[in-house]
Design goal:
The structure holds two protein chains of two kinds. By secondary structure, chain A is of the alpha/beta class. Chain A is built from 23 helices and ten strands. Chain A has a six-stranded parallel β-sheet, sandwiched between helices. In chain A, helix 1 (about 5-15) runs parallel beside helix 17, helix 16 (about 340-350) runs antiparallel to helix 17 and helix 17 (about 350-360) packs across helix 19 (about 375-390). By secondary structure, chain B is an alpha/beta fold. Chain B has a single domain, classed as NagB/RpiA/CoA transferase-like (Rossmann fold, 3-Layer(aba) Sandwich). Chain B is about 30% helix and about 20% strand. In chain B, the strands form three sheets. Chain B has a six-stranded parallel β-sheet. In chain B, strand 10 (about 205) and strand 11 (about 215) form a beta hairpin. Classes of the chains: A alpha/beta, B alpha/beta. Chains A and B meet through helix 2, helix 3, helix 4, strand 1 and helix 8 of A and helix 1, helix 5, helix 6, strand 9 and strand 10 of B. The complex binds iron/sulfur cluster (SF4). Iron/sulfur cluster binds near residues 259, 312, 340 and 375 of chain A.
């Protein structure tokens, strides 16, 4: 077993044992589902809208080279600077070098999963920059020195008293059990940070090829302040985020809000085309976009799973996933959690090390149903399983399948196995739960099902005999 | 220096040499004609008449906790703002020079200090203001959104930094949906779009703590839309 798989088993076991936390999570996730369904119902045709959205993403991803070049041309024409990063190290180094060159001291950030992906904060802090996450959930996670729990709701696993205790310890605020007061503590703390920061770093939800714009969706207003006040704006965005036309957002903004949080529209949907233009009142002097590959082209090269690049990171598939509901976000050990994380992480970080995530699924398909851009998520989990075995067969699985074939192709052998099974079950208690228990993973938390004393075959024959 | 541009493009092209299967139906892309904006057929329905659209905007505003006020004229709008200022004890209001804002501010009480937000304004002074008054590009009926841009609304921060955002708009700025707003922006600016466009839907909010809605996370705690005419 790889170390990542060990970690997954250990953490999943620990988190599933925490029943109160699980109940808390389930309730929150259920809440999102209910709200999402209400808002979905206001669409004239949600299913058609999904098809159209999938279609536009298909067009974007399957002509990625063309649209990225169009984006670059338009963005550059408005005075922006594009940097293409093959990997994390290149992206980090570009941003660090920019900070050094421009004499930056203080950096404010709005939510960007790409920055988690490349561990940007660690890199900036180790060079002595003051870095603050401005999104409330991200700020809480930063103070806790923990990665986000859910890529849309970073601190959904925390209760108010835990957050109050954290603020008390880190910010010296008075304890409170009011979410409103807690939010205001963060607001008051952040105000000066926006004004003092020389550099604002954001992510991007969409790259609009037609107009060379970065579109950012948020509720809190922190991204607007991050991109409006500092003199330098850097957006770190995955290369797959392209939309062909500006007006495509008229579909994607409502769909992202509906699928993600059940809102009709997220509070602020902002499109940024360049730094401050001549004649405008304010805005940054420089605007840089770092286009991040970091193995996205590896996923692109897998034509079967290429649609996974259309993901708009709404989080809907996490909210409905029975696995996520039980193991929670941290057990995954990945930047992107949940069903979509299980699909893409093996491409980003290695199939053999991350294949276990694709195994940890009931294949119920709830994720695929929820996905606003119709990514075939649960089939891709199967594709990953198949590819993992093709690439590197597992010796004991081979033995098991060999045994199965031997048994099933020889009736006398199957009969013998049926006869022996009840006997084997009687002996089971001798090894139960021990090293030699072949089903110890099962018996750890459940009883093994009772084996029938009589096979169906025998029972049928007897019945026929009797009715003669 | 633009990094691994050519290498990344080469990897993309190599990957795309194998076509991807389709996992979904391919409906025709709507809205190719200039008359019928894209996506209208699938998104939430919007009435055709201006009354219906205004009623929808009012309903959405209510859901979003936006204060929506229709005023007979700019003077009436100023009276409403004066009322808010008195009720909340405002000391200072920021605004950008514009046709509607410029018409409104002379009618405000003299004890309410005014700050004009123009090139080179003092950020700390703006942060200390109790309210920011701006114009907008459009009001969007479908979603109850206010479309602001760097051009129409005094830059990027006037509409987000002060704790109360006041928007003044005329009735004819109401459009049906996001598609019409984008069409309108194109018609007005062509290729020279402002560097900042934003759809504001209600006051700033968060549900990060236990899914409980709190208004005024980082942006305005209150949003008031004044429609005149
Ligand atoms: S895979 Fe689909 S449902 Fe999951 S986050 Fe991405 S877009 Fe949303």
């Amino acid at each position: 077993m790889s170390t990542t798989q060990n970690q997954f088993h250990r953490d999943a076991e620990r988190t599933t044992a925490d029943v109160p936390r699980r109940a808390f999570l389930r309730k929150a996730l259920r809440g999102y589902e209910v709200k999402r369904d209400e808002t979905k119902a206001t669409f004239t045709d949600w299913q058609k809208a999904r098809n159209v959205a999938a279609n536009i993403k298909y067009d974007g991803v399957n002509h990625l080279d063309r649209y990225l070049l169009e984006f670059e041309e338009k963005f550059t024409a408005r005075g922006g600077k594009v940097f293409w990063a093959s990997n994390s190290a290149q992206a980090r180094e570009y941003i660090l070098q920019l900070a050094r060159d421009r004499g930056v001291r203080s950096i404010i950030k709005s939510k960007a999963m790409t920055s988690e992906e490349i561990h940007l904060n660690d890199a900036l802090e180790s060079e002595g920059y003051h870095v603050v996450e401005s999104d409330l959930g991200e700020f809480i996670q930063q103070l806790k020195h923990e990665p986000p729990y859910h890529f849309v709701f970073p601190c959904m696993h925390l209760k108010r008293d835990e957050i109050s205790a954290l603020f008390e310890k880190e910010l010296g605020s008075a304890p409170t059990d009011s979410p409103e007061e807690l939010t205001m503590i963060a607001r008051a703390f952040m105000r000066r940070q926006y004004i003092d920061a020389d550099m604002g770093i954001s992510g991007g939800n969409f790259l609009v090829a037609e107009t060379g714009m970065v579109s950012i969706t948020e509720n809190e207003g922190n991204a607007r302040l991050t991109t409006g006040l500092p003199r330098i704006h850097v957006a770190l965005v995955g290369i797959e985020k392209v939309l062909p036309k500006l007006s495509d957002l008229a579909l994607f903004l409502p769909m992202l809000a509906t699928a993600g949080t059940g809102q009709h529209m997220t509070c602020y949907n902002s499109m940024f085309g360049g730094a401050r233009q001549p004649g405008e009142t304010d805005g940054p002097e420089e605007f840089h976009v770092v286009l991040l590959d970091n193995h996205r082209t590896r996923l692109l090269a897998d034509a079967e799973q290429r649609d996974a690049l259309g993901c708009i990171r709404c989080g809907a598939c996490l909210n409905v996933c029975p696995i996520f509901k039980n193991i929670g976000g941290h057990a995954y050990g990945t930047t992107y959690q949940g069903p979509i994380g299980s699909v893409i992480t093996p491409h980003f970080r290695g199939l053999q090390d991350w294949k276990h995530l694709s195994g940890a699924s009931s294949l119920c398909g709830a994720c695929t149903d929820a996905c606003p851009v119709k990514i075939d998520i649960h089939h891709h989990l199967l594709h990953n399983r198949r590819n993992a075995v093709d690439q590197k067969p597992v010796w004991w699985e081979k033995i098991v399948w060999f045994g199965y074939v031997q048994t099933m192709t020889r009736p006398w052998f199957l009969r013998l196995a049926n006869k022996l099974a009840p006997l084997a079950q009687k002996l089971h208690p001798l090894v139960l739960g021990g090293l030699f228990d072949p089903v110890r993973n099962w018996t750890k938390t459940r009883d093994f099902p009772e084996v029938a004393e009589e096979s169906f075959h025998d029972w049928w024959a007897k019945r026929k005999e009797q009715s003669k | 220096m633009n990094g691994d541009r050519d290498k990344i493009l080469a990897r993309i092209r190599e990957g795309l040499s194998v076509p991807a299967p389709l996992h979904h139906e391919m409906p025709a892309r709507a809205g190719q004609s200039a008359q019928e904006p894209a996506f209208r057929a699938w998104l939430p329905a919007v009435g055709a008449s201006q009354e219906e659209q205004m009623a929808l905007f009012a309903k959405q505003s209510d859901l979003l906790r936006t204060e929506f006020v229709t005023c007979a004229d700019v003077r009436a709008a100023a009276a409403h703002v004066a009322g808010l200022a008195a009720a909340h004890g405002w000391k200072k209001l920021a605004f950008h020079p514009g046709a509607l804002t410029g018409a409104l501010v002379p009618h405000l009480p003299t004890d309410l200090e005014q700050m004009r937000v123009e090139e080179g304004y003092d950020k700390l002074a703006l942060e200390a203001c109790d309210a920011g008054l701006t114009e907008c590009e459009f009001l969007v009926a479908q979603t109850g959104s206010v479309c602001v841009t760097a051009r129409s609304s005094g830059g990027r921060t006037l509409s987000v930094l002060p704790p109360h955002h006041l928007v003044i708009a005329s009735r004819d700025q109401l459009v049906a949906d996001l598609s019409s707003a984008y069409q309108g922006l194109n018609a007005k600016y062509g290729a020279a779009l402002p560097s900042f466009i934003s759809f504001i839907s209600g006051p700033s909010r968060t549900g990060d703590i236990e899914r409980i809605l709190v208004l005024g996370a980082h942006g305005p705690k209150k949003l008031t839309v004044l429609v005149v005419g």
